[in-house]
Records
---
Amino acid sequence: MQNHRVIDGKAIAAQVRDGVTKDVERLKSAHGIVPGLVVVLVGEDPASKVYVKNKGEQTKATGMNSWEHRLSAETTEADLLALVGKLNADPAVNGILVQLPLPKHINAERVLNTIDPNKDVDGFHPVNVGRLWVGERTLVPCTPTGSVILAKSVQPNLSGMNAVVIGRSNIVGKPVSALLLRENCTVTIAHSRTRNIQSVVKGADLLIAAVGIPEMVRGDWIKPGAIVIDVGINRVPGENGKTKLVGDVNYEECARVASAITPVPGGVGPMTIACLLQNTVEAAKMQHAIKD
Ligand code: NAD
C-alpha cells in the first residue's frame, strides 16, 4: 500500500534554481549587478572536492560569477585569514564559502567568524545566528532552509503544527528550529540526552531528523499522517561490497505511516546547493540595499 507522498527534492531544488536564475537576470537588467560566489577549498578531501565542483557548476548555470580558491593542505591559518580579508574587501564578491572540514591546524571557528556577516552565505557567523533568532533579514543556513521548503511543499501553512527536530547542531538542528518557530510551529528539540525520545517523536505532526545515526527513527515512532523530513546522510555497507546512502529514518517503515516523506538520496541533499545559490543572490541584494 502506498498512500504517502514521496517529496521530490531534486524537482523542488530545480524550481529553486529557476527562481535564482530569474532573480539574477532581474538584478542584471534592473541594477547592473552580477552576483558572485567564492568557494575556498583547503586540502585534498575527495568529498569536499566534489561538493566544490558542483557548487561552481551550479553557480555558473544560474548566470552568476563563480570563483574557486584551491589552497594546499599546508596553508597556514594566517594565510587563509588574509585571503578571507581580501575577499571581504572585494566588491565583486557577494558570497564567501569556506568549505569544511578544514585541516586540523586551522581553527575553523576563527576563520568562519572572520567572514563578513553580509557575505556569509553559509549563515554560520554568530551575527547571522543572532539575526535569525531575533527575526531580522539575514543569511540563513542552507540545509535548514531547504528542509523547510520541502515541508512547505506538502503543507504551505505550518502554523500551529507540532514540529519535532532531532539534533541540536549549529548547522542543522538549531537553525531549522528557529525557522520552524518563525513559521509558527510549536517546536520541540530532541537530542542525545532526551528521555524517551520515541514518545516525543510520536507527538510530531512534522519531524525533522538531523542526527547522523543510520535509520534510527522507526515506523512505530511516527504519528500517522506526519510529514517526515530526513536530513541524515549516512554511508552503510550495501550489496556487493559497495556502500549505500541511508538517512536517519527507516524509510520503508516510516513511509507506511507518514503522509509525506523525503527519500535519501534525492530529498534534502539537492536542496542545500540550491539554497546556497539563493543566499548568494540575497547577499548581493542586502549589500546593495535592494528590498525584494
Ligand atoms: P552533528 O553530529 O553535528 O549533530 C548531531 C545531533 O544529533 C547532535 O545535536 C546530537 O545531540 C544529536 N544526537 C546524537 N545522538 C543522538 C541520539 N541517539 N538521539 C537523539 N539525538 C542524538 O550532525 P549535523 O551536522 O547536524 O548532521 C546531522 C545529519 O545530517 C548527518 O547525517 C549529516 O550527514 C546530515 N547533513 C546533511 C546535509 C544535507 O545537505 N542533506 C547537511 C548537513 C548535515
Note: Residues 143, 166-169, 171-173, 190-192, 194, 197, 210-213, 231-234, 268-269, 272 surround nicotinamide-adenine-dinucleotide (CB under 6 Å).
---
Amino acid sequence: MQTPTRSHYAAEALTLTAGTPVRLLGWVAVKHQVGGLLFLRIRDGSGYIQVSGRKGTIPQEAWEAAKDASIESAVYAEGIVKDDPRAPSGKELVLSNFQVISPAELWPLRKSLLKSRTALYDLRHLALRGPRTSAIIKIRSKLMESVFDYFFSRGYVYIQSPILVKAAVEGGATLFPVKYFDDVVYLSQSAQLYEEAAICALDKVFIVQPAFRAERSKTSRHLTEFWMIEAELAFTGFEDLMKIEEELVFNISSSIANDCKEELSRVGKKVVAPEPPFPRITYDEALDIATKSGISISWGDDLGTEAERIVSLNFDKPVFVTKYPVNARSFYHMSPPDNPKVTLSADLLAPEGYGEIATGGQRIHNYNVLLDKVRQQGLDPRTMKWYLDLRRYGMPPHSGFGLGVERTLRWLLGLRHIRASTLFPRTPNRVYP
Ligand code: ATP
Ligand code: MG
C-alpha cells in the first residue's frame, strides 16, 4: 500500500479557515468513542489536533480503521477544518477518511504499568513522544540554534576538536579510558586546550560538542556525557569575557522566551530573559553568604553544590562568582598580578538555586608560568608539550568559557533533574536505551 501524502502539519491545520481540506500524517495520541461518534487527538512533529468522525458519514472501512486504531499507531487522517469552541485550540478536523499506516501494540506507558521514574527512563525511546519531553527537546533545539546565531553573527569560527585525547583538562579522576590499539586514550572532558591552539589562527572560535566525565556522584546536575558550548578569544581579558557570557545567556533565554511559547506552556514554565549586566560577587563574598547560612567551607575549596545553591538563591538573575582560589581551579588559570592566590576566573551561577552553568577565565599565556603550574599540579609536561609549545610562539593574552547545555536548560525550564534535558541521558547507572 502506498503511503498517502500530507497537505499540512497539525499546527498549520489549526491556523486554517473553516472548510479547508486537510490531509494529516501522524500518530494517535488519544482516542475516545461515544456511540457512533469518535474523537481522536492526532499528534505529529508540530503539535496536536482534535479530530472527530461520525459513523455513516465516512466510508465504512475508514470508520472501522479509526475506531480500532490503537494508541500510538501511525495513521493518515483526511478531513475538513471546522471551528469548534469546545476543542482545546478552537478548531478541529471533521474526518472524511482514515487509514492505519503502521499499527502500535498495546502502549506500555500507562500509569498502571509504570512503577517508578527509572521505568520511565527504561522506556525513554517511547516516552520521548510525550508532550512534555518533546517540548523540552524542541526548546533544546532552539537553544542550539540561538547559540550558532550568536557566534556566527559576531564573526566566530566554528571548529571541531578531537574526542579521543591523551591528556586531562579538568583533572584525571573523571577521565573515561578507551582502549586504543595497544595504548589507552581518554574521552574528551573539554575542547578548551584545542581551542587555545586554534585562536592563534582564527582569533575567536567556538565549539558545540559532547564532553565526557566519569563523575560517580549521583546528583541532579551531573551527566557522564553532556554537551558543552565553549568559546575562546585571543587578545581578550577576563572582564570582557564575562560580558560575552552574559550576552550569550541573554540571547539564548530571549530566543526561547520569544520562539517557544507553545512548548513552554507544555513544560509549564515561563522564561524571562535576564538582562545584562549580571551581578558579580567575589569568591570571598560568596563564602560569606554561605557561612552565614551555616555552610562551612575552608578558603581555597570549591564552593560545592549546596553553597552554590544558597548563593544563587540571593539573586534573581544569574550571578558571576569571581576570583576563585588557585587551589580550586585547573592548572591553566591565570592569576591577577597583585594576588597570586586567586585566579581571573568566574563561575556563572543560575538563580533559584540551580547553581553553576558556566565557568570561564583568562588563561596563562606565559611559557614559564604555565610550565611551573603543570609541574606543581603533578601533570606530565611531556603529554602537555604541544599545549606548552603554544606559549613559545606568540600566544597572546586570551580567555574562554564553557557553558553546559543541559545545565542551562535545566535552569531555564525548572527541571527537577538534569536527565530530563536530553533525549537519551547518560548517568553512572544508565547507558540504555
Ligand atoms: P561541577 O563543579 O558543577 O561538577 P565543573 O566546574 O567541573 O562542574 P567545568 O569544568 O567548569 O565543570 O565545565 C563547564 C560547564 O560544563 C559547567 O559549568 C557545567 O555547565 C557543564 N558541566 C560540567 N560537568 C558537567 C556534568 N557532569 N554534567 C552536566 N554538565 C556539566
Ligand atoms: Mg566549573
Note: The chain has a mean pLDDT of 95.
